[in-house]
Amino acid sequence: MRVLVVEDEQNIAAAVDRGLRAEGFSVDIAEDGEKALGLIRHNGYAVIVLDLMLPGRNGYDVCRTLRAAGITTPVLILTAKDGEYDEADALDFGADDYLTKPFSFVVLLARIRALLRRSAPQRSPVLRAGDLWLDPAAHRCGRGDERLDLTPREFGLLEFMLRNPDTVVSKTELLAQVWDAWFEGDPNIVEVYVGYLRRKIDTPFGRSAIETVRGIGYRLDAKGG
Amino acid sequence: MRVLVVEDEQNIAAAVDRGLRAEGFSVDIAEDGEKALGLIRHNGYAVIVLDLMLPGRNGYDVCRTLRAAGITTPVLILTAKDGEYDEADALDFGADDYLTKPFSFVVLLARIRALLRRSAPQRSPVLRAGDLWLDPAAHRCGRGDERLDLTPREFGLLEFMLRNPDTVVSKTELLAQVWDAWFEGDPNIVEVYVGYLRRKIDTPFGRSAIETVRGIGYRLDAKGG
DNA sequence: GGAGGACCTGAGAGCACGCTGAGAGACGCG
DNA sequence: CGCGTCTCTCAGCGTGCTCTCAGGTCCTCC
User: Fold this and answer.
1) Contacting B residues, span 178-197, partner chain A, CB-CB under 8 Å
2) Cα–chain-centroid distance for residue B134?
3) Going by C-beta distance under 8 Å and a sequence separation of 6 or more, which residues neighbour residue A140?
């Protein structure tokens, strides 16, 4: 569990370092914003503890740069209550939590733990049915080694069916879940898209993962057909 | 809950081992791919945590071998973010989730729990009468290992009778429950469909699950005939 | 033993359901 | 502005399910 502490005041940095290490964290220290960004670029951190008042690029700047680069690592901001920045502003520029100095180490630890807990379930695992797989987070899917190229609607349909394997899902349910709850168009659209999907995930492989249950709906075979 | 951790770095392996044991898991450690495959072949694991960088057969190799052998145990890949493998490639060769080093133990635990939740069988209640079974959610039924192919009306009829085993159900009741409450056609339809059902679920097996109670209705034997 | 009623079953008509190809409209991109 | 992609509508078609009907069988009761 790796934590980056960005803090220019030596005594505070040392205290936090010692405390976190005692709690089993692996700690890196950066004295200014530039060094912090360099470290973040080359290492993965579970949490970043970031002082706002820094020489050179301040914490505000660092945090925005991070977020702009698409890095979603949880950031905990440390602010001195001197009025230059309102504490609540921290949340506006991409921080996940803030703490005003002076702070007790116990509180800091509790906040870090909370951030770790919060960021834990960010990614859902891959959905599978036999050799058919779909990664909702990466928005990719395939059969075995072969990647499948689906349109957004096709992808949504397959994802829903993979979340309900070996279960018959009705066409109205599919309309409500994959299209809108208030969908008013021709329900035949479901049949059309099931047809599209089959031509991509089943026909080329001589399989039949999606089965028609006449009068009821469709079922995705948990073994992939 | 048994977990296999395939990791050659002693300190990481030890840390994960300690952490998972503290959470109540039973943990095995394998230092390389060969040992991992041997352990997997002889033990059943709920989850496999697999480092990509291993001496000898790497994680990529292990994962593919596993899947080729038809082993579907959830696999969580650990990758060092050094660019040799794209993390998302893991999904292509059969992993269920991935985590880049360094990772926090809290995150690892959350991911393992998510995988376990997903692979946990969420059984819907299956109706049974002897070796005759019917799964309403999957809309499937069969006798023993043999699957039965029923039409929607036949399926509805069998489902209703399975929900009322060893009970005489009248023809008017069947008409109301399996057809419409306001059914106005020829009541003979029930006899016709009971006949269809018998020819599919009884005759081929030399059984008689559906008994006629003359003047009253029909009864499905709870032992399947 | 015969009559009547209850149940079974084969044949076939009708049609509902689901599948598919063609194409229109919306949208983004160069 | 033209092109390609995606979404959705529409209509035609074939399959096979549902149901009716009529004749046959079996049971029950007089």
Assistant:
1) none
2) 15
3) A134, A147, B88, B91
The angle formed by the CA atoms of residues A28, A31 and A36, to the nearest 5 degrees, is 60
Domain final residue, candidates B70, B91, B119: B119
| Tens-place pLDDT, residues B121-146 | 555 689 999 999 999 989 999 999 99
Say if A107 falls within a structural domain. Answer: yes
Residues from chain B contacting residue A219 (CB–CB below 8 Å): 138-139
Gap from A138 CA to D8 C1', Å: 27
pLDDT at B196 exceeding the cut of 90: yes
Nearest-CA distance from A81 to chain B in Å?
31
Domain holding A176: CATH number? 1.10.10.10
- A47 within domain boundaries: yes
Domain that holds residue B141: 127-220
CATH code, A60: 3.40.50.2300
CA gap B7, A223 in Å, rounded: 30
State which residue of chain A sits closest to B82, comparing Cα positions. Answer: A42
Residue B78 in 3-state DSSP? Answer: strand
Whether residue A46 and residue B104 make contact (CB cut-off 8 A), yes or no, is yes
* Residue A115 near residue A74, CB atoms below 8 Å: yes
C-alpha span between B27 and B29 (Å, rounded):
7
Query: pTM of this prediction?
Result: 0.66
Q: Which nucleotides of D are covered by protein (CB under 7 A)?
A: 5-11, 16-22, 27-28
Residues A131 and A116 occupy one common structural domain: no
DSSP letter assigned to residue B45: -
Domain stop point among A102, A122, A142: A122
Q: Are residues B83 and B39 in the same domain?
A: yes
| Confidence at residue B25, expressed as pLDDT on a 0 to 100 scale | 86
Average pLDDT over residues A20-37: 83
pLDDT(B81) > 60: no
Considering the domain architecture, whether residues A98 and A139 belong to the same structural domain is answered as no
Query: Are A157 and A206 members of one domain?
Result: yes
Structure tokens at B171: 């023809």
B138–A123 C-beta distance less than 8 A = no
Q: Which nucleotides on chain C have any atom < 7 A from a protein Cβ?
A: 6-11, 17-22
B147 touches chain A (CB under 8 A): no
Tell whether A225 is covered by a domain: no
- Chain B 66-125, residues with CB within 8 Å of chain A CB atoms: 67, 72, 74, 81, 88, 91-97, 100-107, 109-111, 114-115, 118, 124
Q: What is the pLDDT of residue A88?
A: 56
Alpha-carbon span B45 to A221, nearest angstrom: 24
Read off the pLDDT of residues A155-189 as tens digits, 9 standing for 90 and up: 999 999 998 899 999 898 898 788 876 777 788 99
Which of B 142-181 have CB under 7 A of nucleic chain C? 171
B220: β partners: B210
